Structure formats: C-alpha cells, structure tokens
Amino acid sequence: MELKDKKILVTGGAGFLGTAVVRELQKRGVPLENILITRSKEHDLRVRAVCEEVVKGIDIVFHLAANAGGIGYNRANPGVLFYDNLIMNTELMEAARKAGVKKFLGIGSICSYPKLTPVPFKESDFWNGYPEETNAPYGLAKKMMQVQADAYNQQYGFNAISVLIANLYGPRDHFEPNRSHLIPAIIRKIEEAQKAGQDWIEAWGTGEPTREFFYVDDAAEGIVLAMEKYDSPAPINLGSGQEMRISEVISKVVEATGFKGEVRWNPGEPDGQPRRTFDISRAEKEFGFTAKTPFAEGLRKTIEWYRNQQ
After folding, report:
1. pLDDT tens, 40-56?
2. For residues 114, 116, 121 and 126, what is the CA-based torsion angle, rounded to 10 degrees?
3. Could you give the residue numbers annotated as active site?
4. Whose C-alpha in 72, 97, 105, 189 is 20 to 30 A from the C-alpha of 257?
C-alpha cells in the first residue's frame, strides 16, 4: 500500500509510540497535513460519535491509543484497563468499517499471550491459554481486537490487521511512577536517588523473570511496514527477539547512568510473567522487518532524553 497520497488517522499520535510513527510516516513522504492525530484530552475514543467523527474522509487508520502501564498500574486498575481498551478498540474499528476505511492497523500486546507460552512466543501459541494474571484484563481487551479484526475480515472483507508489540522503551516513554514500565521506572528511581544523595534503589520482585525490550523507533518502522505490506488478519509479532533477565536489564541501566549505589530487591512485589520474548521470524519473512537498534544505544538515548527534560 502506497501511503504518500492517503489521508491517515493516527490515534494516540501525540504520545510515546504515536510520535515515532508520525515521524516514520513523514520519512516516507507523507505530508503532515495528511495525518490526523487524536489526543485523549480532545477525543474520547470510548464514545461512538467521536470515533465516527475522526474517521470521516480517512483512508487508513493506525490505532495506537491505549490505556496502559506497568505491573503496579495494571494491578490497581484492572476494570478501567479492560473497559477503556475494549471499548476504544471496538468502537473505532466499527466506525472505520462503516466509513469505508481501506485499512486498519491495531496495536496488540505481548501481554495477550498465555502465561506459560513456550519461549520464544510463536503466533501459533496465541490462543493456547490464559494471560498472566497481573495484566490479564488489559491483555484480553487487546486480544478481542484480534477477534474483531478476524471477524470483520470474514464477514465484511474489511482489511484489519493486528500487530503484537514487545515491551517498548525509548525517549518520550511514561516516566511518571503510577504508569511507568520497568526501564523508565528504574531510570527515574536512579536519577532521584542521585539527586537526593541516596545510595540505593528498590526494584520489584526477584529479578529472575525475562523480558524483551523493543526500541520505539524500531517499533514505528515495523508498524509502518506492516501497514504497507501485511494484509492477513492473523496476528504477527514485532520485537527485537532478544530475551534478557530483569536483573540484567537493571544492571545495564545502573551502568549506563553511572549509579554507584545498591539495588535492593523487594520479593514481596510481583514478578509478573515468568518469561517473555517473541519469535520474530514471521515479520521478517512477511515484510522484511528486523529491529536495528542495539539495546545499549537505545538505553543511552532514553537516559539522555529523560535528563534533558529535568
């Protein structure tokens, strides 16, 4: 699909992932005036009339808007996360179908995979169990978008695709304590400890689980490639394919920030899913995507961006 001449809606386009996708579209020659960006303060996508309004005259939709956060946020807001994401996704896709949108791309999540999925996670295992409990309401709401895409493709011939994203990190991430994921949370804790002269930080859990981290600019490139070249309703993984133990990730953040203090683990807080990493071979086969940013480089850029905001 050629994007340059299309009218494009990017929900959440002013956010962390959204700004990266908008930059990627502009790199591909899409004029900014052809891109409609929605923001949660101005467009409540849980409201059907709002969804109907924002898809008027639109050719393609990148649905990136979501209510999401780390383990603590998921644990405190399971009902909100289920409702907000389920309703946003459902109403927007239905409005897009009715408006004659040519293609719809929704962002799924690694959180939707079953808790004990064999590693690396293959798309064929997507339906083989229940998600990890601390993020199940969010993961299941995202999973229903995949069901909707498949159902609409079957009944209406609607070209809706769902890409499953690994744990994102990078500049413009959520660093506020009530929403942040692992990397921004640890960066903030370290920076605040250094300013306060504190020689330790707390980390949740045991450090034993593994995660896959995906630099936001790489994610944006993969998402736009999927829009251009991928037309199957079957879910497809996007990530770096690199599995790292949480304790190793935190050690790398400590080293990159120059922090000389101690990391004190709090095993009373949840670990979350035991292991997470994607098999990313299908994305490479289907549309030639592989992540390019080494973890050390992405981490350096993330830390620099955060420090520049202080």
Report:
1. 899 999 999 999 999 99
2. -30
3. 138
4. 72
Torsion of CA 294, 296, 302, 307, to 10 degrees: -160
Domains contained in the chain, CATH given: 8-169+213-241+276-292 (3.40.50.720)
CA-to-CA distance for 112 and 114, rounded, in angstroms?
A: 7
Quick count: other Cβ atoms within 10 Å of Cβ 246? 21
Region 96-110: what's the mean pLDDT?
A: 98
How far, in Å, CA of 219 to CA of 150, rounded?
A: 23
Look-up: residue for tokens 């905001």? 309
Which residues have C-beta within 8 Å of that of residue 59, sequence separation ≥ 6?
6, 7, 8, 101, 102, 103
Give the C-alpha distances (Å, rounded to integers) separating 82 from 11, 66, 143, 271.
Answer: 18, 11, 11, 21
Does this model's pTM top 0.85? My answer is yes
Backbone Cα Rg of the chain? 19
